[in-house]
Write a structure and sequence with these properties.
The structure is a homohexamer of 299-residue chains. Chain A is mostly helical. Chain A is built from 9 helices and 3 strands; from the N terminus they run E-H-H-H-H-H-H-H-H-E-E-H. In chain A, helix 3 runs antiparallel to helix 8. The first copy, chain A, is extended, with a radius of gyration of 28 Å. Chains in contact: A-B, A-C, A-D, A-E, A-F, B-C, B-D, B-E, B-F, C-D, C-E, C-F, D-E, D-F, E-F. The interface between A and F is large, with 52 and 55 residues. Strand 1 of chain D pairs antiparallel with strand 1 of chain E.
Chain lengths: 299, 299, 299, 299, 299, 299
């Protein structure tokens, strides 16, 4: 269960309204790596976590903080939209290029749809989607995704930091940058901890299948583009997290058969010249098992 | 420019058709971490890469291979659908529970829409989306996302491996598992290389802003959920990639003001009791600059 | 800022795992009227609310509770998935129709993607979208949408209640039904309060434009389908919230001109026979204003 | 079956082209509360309506009218785009700020994709989605959603009305405002009628479950945010549509167990320390019923 | 403006309910080539059509008919869902494999969301999208898309025809097949008419640019996959609609430069080794034009 | 399997950066008819193709070329973004209208998300979707869709050609126009070839059902809009591809029953007055078949 405090985690006070910047700042709310993503991603990871204790607690602490980050950004966007020329006409915009520049750079839905408030969308007006959430139940795979999400979040925040010189906005973004730093660091440390605790090895997952995978194909980079430097990186020939070094196949050869779809079911009306016979029949499961035998007896 | 060889990178021959498994295998084609995602993700990263040489070449080698993985999986799906009871009626399905189980587990669009072939969708029929692609121009942030994508791809492949005992399908998946292993290893090694080359430090990005971020907030986990073990992980008190250890704020206090949206523009008809005055006016840019001055002179 | 308590708002313990029901229950998490929608909808309404005090507090109280409802449902889904035959093969499913029925009714992504946990998707695997959120800044319009959302939420919960006889699941849903009842009632009462407080009249919005709208068209139902009973409802002839009764136009006549698109710009290559002349030119704003005059002087 | 008259329901003639306004007007065509939404929403409600007579006739009359509203708006958009500087280059736009403002405010797809015509998208270019349609079969829940949709439609129309001073556009919007008024009024009246007819009571739905829901939790607002005015509204202590007044729980206590996901299936490779045993097994339905018994006999 | 007749264009009466088939039939309502697509596609084409007379009339006649097709299919789906075991529990489904097969094959939202009615979604529950509509203003390009849409619509209808033996359903589908036939034929004939009328030539569009395109590249198939039969089709060497025959480049050579992204803006924090200098500056338009000159004078 | 050459198929070198044009050019990358669509569409058609030889080879040759077109366009976009005022503030944009026009016309995500590179999105920021792919297995239906896609691709390229006077950009687009011409021609020729080879007749598909469709309804245009010229086209009365001429029904009459949804399941809580009895019961398949008989014996 959750509780809410009206006070923001950190101040969100711009010096001056700036509706064009509000438009851009939506990326940090509803973008693929915005605060809605990390909030919901950590919540679902926490709710799906099977290990009580330090990992689950770290996840839930961070998840709960991120809801508050959405709140800070939503408040900031509303304040940046204060007094915006949202209802100015095209004629007014065309008569004064300065108004025109501001109107042209606004998100029109900030006026028409939300009436001056933030929305769960990104800087291009694309809505936040549940597909942005990564929560697999495997903590190592998920923490790698978390570290990547915080890296992209911090990168986008840094870019947006350069696009304003409003002291109030910059003050808040300095806080956001710092939180992205610690969250990124904590997920990288937690990745080490998972391995130290013997819960998950690298590479992810699952090592139990190492014996079954084609081990001969598990350490070779295939050279399939004509750049000549792919084998000059430190990644070739030095030990990897699971021991064996990576090798380089300079002239790779396709190992498979000629890819061709099988003969089709005539009732599906796919184009077919009959050259390769009729489709195999029947599919797995439609002819065998106790039910098949039973049906014979009953009919 | 690209060229194509009809031979598959590795054989994709099931022992027997299995339309229910074909439905599930779609996740590896069009899912958020399917082969379409890594293929397109690496292509856009490669095309946007500003560093000629080993990094770009590694990205393009891998990107090109992944297009071939979509091809292998698409071929496998078509072969698993051969002879499927796709056109059987509900009456037939109800009369024979074995047929019913197969029909109920199929993707109906595999019959109605694609006529027995693979589609660019996931295991729930959701279409592949350009939003799955991560390509920021920052190689460290992108390689972290790549390592995470390969981790999830290998995890999902491992789960799907357990859901079949068809020797032909398993043979191909053993190859896929191995390729996911080497790709995961290579991105982790390339992350080290970027730092060794002095191109990007950890944490991502950009360190140039470390002096500006709120450094006091850059290393503290805030305790906002009531689990008591969040400070018992190795992540507290030990050095991090950028030096300072992470601390733990057991009783955090909100530092911001009370979050409230500002007075609204009356023409937007937001509900408002007037208690907090009229909106600030005008917004940034609508009153200043040479154009403002110019307009005064002209009118 | 938000805080989290590990204890659920209400118990979420099924008597027995039921992965087919978990599939259906996803509708209440990530569906258009699921708990994610009401949680985020109320949060954005609260953050955008311009009226400090009772309305904002009611919104934030309810918003915060709804995050906890997502938590309860996510926990319930994970528990319903315990021990599911998620990794059984098609052969196993076909050999035992009971297993087949369970596997056929599961969401395959509950195994492949989330590894036994809930996801931010609906009962058809479609992801939750920011487009489900309604937050306009106008409290009357928003509270009507809230009442409708709670009505649909309660209706869907009631339908799902009928689809299980698991006592633990039903116990939780009885709590959810009750919460949907009170939330629905509170929004209906708050609609009355807004009007009693003189903040918003009915119909929504804004009454300030009543004098400008075509008042002659503001109270007439047009008879455009051939059913004969459209004028037999109590809605015809009796007073409405804004006074005048609704009338019925039995034989409506189109009042507009013939709808036809204007002559096209030749460079856009739309098909055109030239019969209606050249396009009007230029568009609003491209010929007038101080800049137009200025440009003349400078060139 | 439908028939079409070339004459528009009401005139859609702008005084002058205005491509920037055409961009904004798309919200009323393809937005979440645009005319496509109400048209399709009412059509699906009408087609799914189980009550022949006045309700179904009112729905179908209104649905049919709304198709004509999409037509009016699409015609208006095409006319607003006449003579737009759609094919002007960036150089031209930069050389003349007035042209620049118009080009910057246009939807680029109005030139590239539709060649000067309207599209089924909103003011941010997001396509209309079937998810915007609400049609549950329960008329009370649906009519509440209809009233909310008309409220938001009228609100957005009123905002757009303020963003133009073109007399022709305003003339059409005055008609649209009026139609939104009567439709909003009619759904509110029809909600009363449903209750007067004894078909549906408030709150929605279904009252048959009132005895089963947790009645102790059906009338209490939980205080979960720290605003202090949530109990000062008229909604506390006064009778509600279903009788009992709403109460206020000032210091609510979580009633559930600690939310934790159950032990996972090892083959799904979720991270787990084994501390809570193996997963329950088997799931509902995979061990019982006549087929289970039968299988025993046959094998 | 539109009018509606309660009578369906053609009868939609199944002999017997079949909820599994209703699930599949959704593809013809809300799929990419379903009736909603052709209805809305033709409506937008008609509203955007610049040529009054026979073309516009044909488009509007067909568009209006297609709305009635959505109606027929929606009615059929509701009737196929009558008496469905929609509220049966998993226990009931597992105890009776026949019920299990039906429940497993249903769309769960047909019970939970629509309460027994059709929805604007496809056979996998994906919502209809405005992106399915093709309306470019160029009638030749649009009519080709229309012919393709009717071809796919008829193909899917034919596949669905094979999946039922219900005489009532088949009767309606025989009507739908026939309508798809005539619509397909009419668009193919209208393509000829456009050319006969001299309004649009083949290939689409626009021929006015033939002199500017790289004519040397306008008739050659490049051999980029290793299949050896690409030059054995009748398409090589015989006249084409615009005269010149298609040739075959057996060993094509890339004609471009090495693709590499340019030096990045340092403030965007893309990874860059500086090897290729600083970014070009400034971009088009930011240094020239009357405003640039003016700014110099004013400052 | 695929291989990659670093050299582009054709040069992609703009004379000068132009970030506003880069924004528009995204339509050709990630739009509904952009290069990603044709690349993936042809790949899936090729992988699903059942006819080895000339058709499959033509498809794979073209598919492989189109991946290279995405590469050319992505490179062009990155180069057009070089030195863009991406990190300029609103204040700077407002102070200099020329900068303002450029900033207002840019895609903000080109700075915030991709850091100066192309993205898999269209000119409105909507992501590329798997739903854009058409691949049915029926080559005639697919080739018609291919011809339409190339027509729209060429049309959009021609429109974009008019929106720039940059010689480098125009040089590349002249190549693209030419490739769209030959691809369009080749699909039109391949449509003829399919018929010449006797593999598929017109109209698509499948002719095997001609005897079963309502032949009386297969050649008549229904007059449902009031335009009077629908019967004046050459499409009326002249032979069609399958022989019989199209006729015109000037005063069509609905042939079906009154469309009304059947009585609902009470547990789904749809509004119903009981006037039409109880729902039919049970649905197809839930009462018959060997399992029904078997269940009787066992219980």
């Amino acid at each position: 269960m959750f509780r809410h405090t009206s006070q923001l985690q950190y101040a969100a006070k711009p010096d001056k309204p700036d509706p064009v910047y509000a438009h851009k700042l939506q990326e940090l709310i509803g973008g693929a790596f915005g605060e809605m993503t990390v909030a919901l991603q950590y919540l679902f990871q926490g709710w799906n976590c099977r290990v009580p204790g330090k990992y689950k607690d770290l996840i839930m602490d961070t998840a709960t903080e991120e809801i508050g980050h959405v709140e800070m950004l939503a408040t900031m966007v509303a304040r940046l939209l204060e007094g915006a020329p949202a209802t100015a006409t095209t004629k007014a915009a065309a008569a004064d290029p300065v108004v025109g520049a501001v109107l042209g750079g606004m998100d029109p839905q900030h006026a028409i749809v939300s009436g001056g408030g933030a929305m769960p969308i990104d800087a291009n007006g694309y809505p936040w989607s549940g597909k942005f959430v990564v929560a697999s139940g495997n903590l190592l795979a998920d923490f790698q995704a978390n570290a990547a999400a915080e890296a992209h979040g911090r990168l986008q925040t840094a870019r947006l930091y350069q696009m304003t010189d409003d002291a109030g906005v910059r003050d808040m973004l300095q806080f956001n940058l710092a939180r992205d730093t610690v969250h990124q660091l904590q997920w990288l440390k937690a990745i080490e901890e998972l391995q130290a605790d013997g819960l998950e090895p690298t590479p992810v997952a699952p090592n139990a299948l190492f014996d079954e995978e084609k081990t001969g194909d598990a350490h070779a980079v295939w050279h399939l583009s004509d750049g000549q430097a792919g084998d000059q990186g430190g990644w070739i020939g030095t030990p990897t997290p699971n021991g064996d070094p990576i090798t380089y196949v300079a002239e790779p050869v396709a190992q498979g058969d000629t890819g061709i779809a099988p003969p089709p079911d005539p009732k599906l009306y796919a184009t077919y010249d009959g050259s390769r016979g009729a489709p195999a029949s029947p599919a797995l499961g439609t002819e065998t098992g106790p039910m098949g035998k039973l049906k014979d007896k009953l009919t």
